[in-house]
């Protein structure tokens, strides 16, 4: 778990630079209308994917505009005259008609060139809102089940984090409408997907767009946006066998004011857990207005408020399989275990006691939650047929808190073998206050260079991120019974204060040039200036000067990508890329301390693959092979602040395919193989004992993940669709020593839809009734292991049933 809270404060130089930049953006917007008289006689259009075109003097067609905690030990044509290039559309994100794997959708996570996932020389996945509905995805953690080789964890200290391509947690960057908000283990929250238009995932090192921390990749959450046209309303509700319920309403379309479109969404999800007295209550309200000032200028504004109120499940204790009175389970954990948190013990075979599968060890007065407010605004100005300027200014305010017992560790020495055993518990309370604001501006230029169609984008971004933390330093602890814990109350608290400020400015360039009608070179480079300031005060308010506070440091990473795409035949595209990323060597930038190496680690990837699509666009497949290396990695280790792992190497392949074979039949499947290893990870611990993890696998990295599913729609008077899916996740480890294995598991889901046409409900265009069974075989398995809480694992949910209905009119 990694949490935090922050006081505003900006360096004078940064303030001036940011102010000047913001004013320039404002001036550009205010002068847009005046500049139209200087534009070409035909209204400009949104610039789109680069296409080679023959010389022409015909004007382009007009198109309608669219859219720290204290660490626990534990991403041509030739001719005599110049020819203006023909211009294609720069499509709004998510605007393209869906294909089986959604590769035709334009994304914001992989490039700022306005190209689709298919046209990007990397593995980019798009999980659309329709896909989420079809697959029963309710939260952002569930999104992992729809992506190739991805697993998700709801570790309470770092909710909604992912593992992919051999990396997890802070080694993946989370974006929100293209905006990075900070390390995912610090800022991630449980979130309902009802208000999202799509989730975009790019695999492997990619700091070009995502910024700091995108070693394993980046995940971008895109909210629903207005559309131009008749108003469409939608609503849904559902209820499950854990007594959880979910409901929402959305509306969008054109208003009576010409040029003004809107979108509004509201939802609530009471997500009840199978663990006693645990839940997450998720509420969200969002809205956006788009206004087309004229054919060349669109302005927009958006606001969103999210709130979650939680009583978290922190994990189920690992116990010795041969312990007195223990009722062992099979297939959940295996290997060898001795208590990590309390200093070891006799190595034993680990298990989960069958009597504790729903037991809650949290204190009775536990509470966690967050409130988040987003304000965003911007414009798109098509200055000419070939030049477009886009800008987004944003503000984000978040308050998060944790007040829990977090450690639940079976103590082998207190009573592990003598009696029924005792559970050692330890508290932590933490509050974050985060305030982020910034601007991202893109200048896009379509041109013809030596007869070759070319697109160039220059992006300037600047942000100020204040992150303040109030953290309990007492870590109050006690012991409770394994089977009947007297949960009690939190107890005393004494907080230290930590103030962190991160100022970031970046300049990036991307270019795509089509050397032929089928072969394109794509590349980009990002220059970044990151200034970190931290200070810390003990519970009595005294500056912790002896520990090196306050301190400041500056990072200047340079990252980028170079690659190609080659359509060797209709529907067959080859691609390759080399890309890089940078992030702090230790933990994440919000919890760096003056006593640890204040350096950046670098990562790179080599990737190649093929993307296939049938002529009728009813079938798609992708294949990729990758080799990722992250150097100079520092890994948290029990009893020591940090230890050096020379590097992490990750290699693997990913395969995905989907086909709408015949009318009504859909088939899909994917698989990912990965080998991720520590290299040169050896040290002498605090007790003088030599330790080596070289060749070991990082936590929460399965070597094999596979998904498959099928559905069939019966074309009857009341159309019925039935389907099922399977998910396999291989062995994983909950700590870098690889002693405790979280065993491989397979789960199955099944569902049925009934669509009721509008003839049955006057005024309702479409009604769908649905029934779903999750974990059909009631598989008992370990879903996630938090390497900071190594004596407990998070169990997957048992079988549950859900009924629901959705309406559109």
Automatic annotation (TrEMBL):
Keywords, in A-Z order: Cell outer membrane, Ion transport, Iron, Iron transport, Membrane, Receptor, Signal, TonB box, Transmembrane, Transmembrane beta strand, Transport
Record's bilayer topology term: Multi-pass membrane protein
Record's keyword annotation contains Membrane: yes
Domain TonB-dependent receptor-like beta-barrel: 338-776
Family as reported in the entry's similarity comment: Belongs to the TonB-dependent receptor family.
Signal peptide, first to last residue: 1-35
Residue segments, region Disordered: 40-84
Protein name (record): TonB-dependent receptor
Places the protein is found: Cell outer membrane
Organism: Bradyrhizobium zhanjiangense
């Amino acid at each position: 778990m990694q949490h935090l809270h922050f006081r505003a404060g900006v360096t004078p130089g940064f303030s001036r630079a940011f102010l000047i930049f913001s004013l320039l953006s404002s001036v550009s917007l205010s002068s847009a209308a005046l500049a139209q008289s200087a534009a070409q006689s035909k209204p400009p259009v949104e610039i789109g994917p680069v296409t080679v075109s023959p010389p022409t003097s015909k004007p382009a067609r007009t198109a309608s505009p669219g859219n720290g905690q204290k660490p626990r030990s534990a991403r041509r044509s030739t001719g005599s005259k110049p020819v203006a290039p023909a211009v294609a559309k720069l499509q709004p994100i998510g605007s393209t008609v869906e294909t089986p794997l959604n590769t035709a959708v334009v994304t914001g996570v992989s490039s700022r060139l306005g190209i689709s996932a298919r046209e990007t020389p990397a593995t980019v996945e798009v999980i659309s809102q329709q896909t989420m509905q079809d697959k029963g995805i309710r939260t952002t953690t569930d999104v992992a089940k729809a992506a190739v080789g991805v697993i998700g964890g709801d570790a309470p200290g770092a909710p909604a984090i992912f593992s992919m391509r051999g990396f997890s947690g802070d080694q993946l960057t989370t974006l929100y409408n293209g905006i990075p908000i900070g390390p995912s283990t610090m800022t991630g929250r449980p979130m309902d997907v009802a208000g999202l238009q799509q989730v975009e995932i790019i695999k492997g090192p990619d700091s070009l767009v995502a910024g700091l921390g995108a070693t394993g990749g980046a995940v971008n959450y895109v909210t629903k946006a207005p559309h131009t046209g008749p108003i469409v309303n939608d609503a849904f509700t559902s209820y499950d066998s854990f007594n959880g319920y979910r409901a929402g309403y959305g509306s969008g379309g054109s208003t009576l004011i010409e040029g003004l479109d809107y979108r509004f969404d509201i939802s609530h999800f009471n997500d009840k857990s199978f663990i006693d007295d645990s839940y997450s209550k998720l509420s969200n309200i969002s809205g956006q207005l788009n206004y087309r000032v004229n054919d060349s200028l669109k302005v927009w504004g958006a606001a969103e408020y999210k709130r979650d109120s939680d009583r978290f499940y922190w994990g189920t204790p690992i116990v010795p399989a041969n312990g007195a009175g223990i009722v062992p389970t099979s297939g959940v954990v295996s290997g060898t275990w001795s208590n990590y948190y309390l200093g070891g013990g006799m190595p034993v075979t680990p298990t989960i006691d069958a009597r504790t599968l729903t037991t809650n060890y949290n204190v009775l007065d536990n509470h966690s939650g967050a409130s988040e407010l987003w304000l965003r605004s911007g414009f798109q100005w098509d200055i000419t047929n070939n030049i477009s300027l886009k800008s987004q200014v944003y503000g984000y305010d978040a308050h998060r808190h944790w007040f829990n017992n977090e450690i639940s560790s079976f103590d082998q020495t207190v009573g592990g073998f003598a009696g029924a055993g005792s559970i050692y518990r330890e508290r932590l309370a933490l509050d974050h206050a985060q305030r982020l604001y910034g601007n991202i501006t893109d200048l896009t230029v379509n041109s013809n260079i030596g007869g070759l169609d070319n697109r160039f984008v220059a992006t300037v971004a600047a942000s100020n991120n204040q992150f303040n933390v109030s953290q309990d330093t007492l870590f109050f602890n006690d012991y409770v019974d394994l089977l009947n814990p007297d949960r009690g109350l939190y107890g005393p608290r004494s907080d230290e204060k930590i103030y962190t400020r991160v100022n970031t400015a970046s300049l990036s360039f991307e270019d795509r040039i089509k050397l032929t009608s089928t072969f394109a070179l794509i590349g980009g480079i990002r220059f970044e200036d990151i200034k970190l300031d931290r200070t810390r005060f003990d519970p009595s308010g005294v500056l912790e000067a002896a520990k090196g506070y306050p301190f400041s440091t500056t990072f200047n990473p340079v990252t980028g990508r170079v690659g190609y795409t080659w359509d060797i035949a209709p529907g067959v595209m080859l691609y390759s890329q080399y890309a890089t990323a940078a992030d702090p060597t230790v933990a994440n930038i919000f919890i760096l301390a003056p006593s640890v190496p204040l350096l950046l680690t670098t990562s790179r990837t080599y990737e190649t693959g093929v993307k296939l699509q049938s002529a009728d666009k009813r079938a798609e497949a992708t294949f990729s092979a990758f080799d990722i290396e992250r150097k100079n990695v520092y890994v948290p280790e029990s009893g020591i602040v940090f230890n050096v792992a020379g590097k992490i190497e990750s290699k693997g392949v990913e395969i995905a395919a989907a086909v709408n074979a015949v009318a009504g039949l859909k088939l899909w499947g994917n698989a990912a193989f990965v080998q991720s290893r520590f290299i040169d990870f050896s040290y002498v611990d605090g007790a003088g004992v030599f330790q080596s993890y070289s060749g070991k696998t990082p936590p929460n990295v399965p070597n094999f993940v596979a998904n498959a599913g099928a559905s069939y729609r019966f074309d009857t008077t009341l159309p019925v669709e039935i389907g099922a899916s399977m998910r396999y996740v291989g062995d994983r480890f909950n700590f870098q020593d690889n002693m405790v294995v979280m065993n491989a598991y397979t789960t199955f889901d099944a569902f049925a839809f009934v669509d009721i046409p509008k003839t049955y409900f006057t005024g309702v265009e479409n009604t769908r009734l649905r029934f779903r069974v999750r974990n059909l075989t009631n598989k008992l398995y370990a879903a996630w292991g938090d390497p900071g809480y190594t004596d407990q694992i998070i169990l997957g949910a048992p079988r549950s049933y859900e009924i629901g209905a959705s309406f559109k009119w």
